[in-house]
Amino acid sequence: MDIKIFDTLKGELVNFVPIKNDSVSMYVCGPTVYNLIHIGNSRPMIVFDAFRRFLEYVGYKVTMVQNFTDIDDKIIIKAVKEGVPFNEISERYIVEYMKDALALRIRTANFHPKTTNYVHEIIKFINELIDKGFAYESAGDVYFDVRKFEQYGMLSHRNPDDMRSGSRIEVSDIKTDPLDFALWKKAKENEPSWESPWGKGRPGWHIECSVMATELLGESFDIHAGGNDLIFPHHENERAQSMAHSGNDFANYWMHNGMIKVAGDKMSKSIGNIWLVRDVVSKYGADTVKVFVLSKHYRVPLDFSEEGLQAQKKSVSRVQQALKDAEDFFAGTVPYVKNTEYMKSKIETFKQALSDDFNTSKAVALIFDLSAELNKALSEKNETHVIENYHLIRNEFGPVLGIFEIQETQQKSSTDDTDKVMQVLIQLRNQARTDKNYTLSDSIRDGLASIGIQLKDTPEGTKYIIQ
RNA sequence: GGCAACGUAGCCAAGUGGUUAAGGCGGCGGUCUGCAAAAUCGCUACUCAAGGGUUCAAAUCCCUUCGUUGCCUCCA
Asked: What pLDDT sits at residue A419?
C-alpha cells in the first residue's frame, strides 16, 4: 500500500518510500528541558508516536529517535536563578517529561539522546565543517556560513536575500552574514562549558540534532518531524549543516504538525497562555486529550478549549463504556477470534485513511462507528459482532492511534468495599421502586449523582458508574 | 513588508473535480424506563467566507476581495 505524506521540503503530498525496503528511520525534535511541557508540546508527541505505530502496524521496522536538548540559555538562566548546576535543571525536567509522556501513554522512542552526551561528536562535526569551508571561527564562537550552502532557505521556502533585508535579523560584526548561525558558543563567565579547539564553550542550538541524528540514524535517514514553528530556523539550519557536512541528503521527508492555539493565539511559553499536560490529563484523561488532538488533521492549527475537551470527553466515555460493557458481557475477557471478513474490511478502511497523509480524523470517526456497532451487538447479544467490534477498537485500531488501549476508568471488583456498599444502596432503592416509593428511590439516585455516581437501570439490573 | 496556511451546520471537524457533503458535541422527536440516565432509531448544511472564471460537471481547479492564523526572534 502506498503511504502518502505531506513533505515540507517539496511542499506537496508525496509517496513515502523509505531508504531501506522494510525499515524506517525517524527523528522527532524533542524539547529543550527547562520547564514542564504544555499541551502544545504534546501534539507532536501524540501525532508522531501514533504515526510511528502506524508504520509498524503496516509492517515497517521503525527506529525512532527523540532528543532532549539539555544545554541552552534558558536552562542556564533557570539554574542560576535556583543556584543549582545546569544539569540538575535538565535532569529534573527530563524526568518530568517522561512522567507526562507516560501519563499520555506515549511510547518511548528507541533512543532519547541528550546533547551533553554528544559534545565530543559535536566538536568533531564542527571541526569537519570548518575544514570543508562551511564554517568559521570568530571571537571564540563558530558560525555556519550560510552563503556557502546554496540550498539555504529551500526547506522553509524563503529567499535568504528577503530575510537579510528584514529588520528583525540582528546584525553582528562578528558574523560574516547576518543569517549565519552559531555552531559553537564561547562560554561567558561562570557558564557551563566544554573544552574545544576554539576555547571553552558549548554547542549552539541546532547542531545537536544534526549530530545525534547522524550518529544514531546515519547521514541520510527517512523522516524528520516536529512542530512547524521549527521549520525556520531550526530545521533549515539543521539541514544546511548536515548536508554541508556529509555532502548527501539529510532527511528525505520533513513532517510538521500545526500549532495548538488558545483563543486564537499560539500556545507558547513566551506568551504564557499554556495548559500543562499533566493538569489537562488528570482532569480529562489521556484518551480524551489524544482523541481531541487526533480528531483534527495534524497539519492544521488546532484550537484548544475546555469546551472542546468537555465535548470530546463525552464521546470518548461512550466508547470506553461500550468496551467495558463488552468485557462485562464476557465476564472479564473477550475471546480472540481469527479476523473475519467484516474485520478485514474495516482494517482496510482504517489503513486507507491513515495512508492518506495520516488522516487520523477519519480513523477516529471509524472508531466511533464501530463503537455504535458494538453497542448494537451488545443489546442484540450478538456474540460474534461484540467480539469483532471490541477487538477492532481495543486491540487493533486503539493500539495504533494510542487510544482506548486500556480501561482508564477504575473498575470496581465485587470484592471491593465500595461495591458492597453500592449493592446495599441499589437494593434499597430497588425495594423503594417496587413499593412505588419514587420519592425515596429518586432521592437515592440524585444523592449518588451529586457525588459523581451514576445509576443505570438496565435489563440486566441496576449498574453504576463512578465518574 | 516578505513567505505560507486556513475559512464546510449552533459549535468541533473530514471530504479537495462526478453516488444521498463522514464523524463528534449540542438540539428536536421516537423506542426503552415508574420517571430518568445510558443505549438505540430518526431528524437537524438543497449547500461549502464573498464575487467572478475554467469545465458536460467545482466545496474541490484558477483569479479577485474580505476574514483568521503561523513563520520571518526563543518556541512543538
From this structure: 84
Query: A402: left (phi > 0), else alpha (psi -120 to 50), else beta?
Result: left
Q: Are residues A235 and A379 in the same domain?
A: no
A275-298 per-residue burial string, b: 16 or more CB within 10 A, e: under 16? bbbbebbeebbbbbbbbbbbbbbb
Asked if the interface predicted TM-score (ipTM) of this complex is over 0.90, the answer is yes
CA A227 to C1' B47, whole Å: 35
Q: What is the pLDDT of residues A227-264, one digit of tens each?
A: 999 999 999 999 999 999 999 999 999 999 999 998 87
Instruction: Specify whether A207 is located in the same domain as A316.
Output: no
> CB count, 10 Å around CB of A369?
13
Does A283 reside within a domain?
A: no
Q: What does pLDDT average to over chain A?
A: 92
Distance, CA of A324 to C1' of B34, in Å: 28
pLDDT at A414: 55
Positions in chain B where some atom is under 7 Å from a protein CB: 1-6, 11-15, 22-26, 32-41, 68-76
Residue located via cell numbers 564553550 = A201
DSSP labels, A337-387: -PPPHHHHHHHHHHHHHHHBT--HHHHHHHHHHHHHHHHHHHHHT-HHHHH
H or E stretch covering A319: helix A306-329
- For residue A412, the one-letter residue type is K
Domain range for residue A455?
417-466
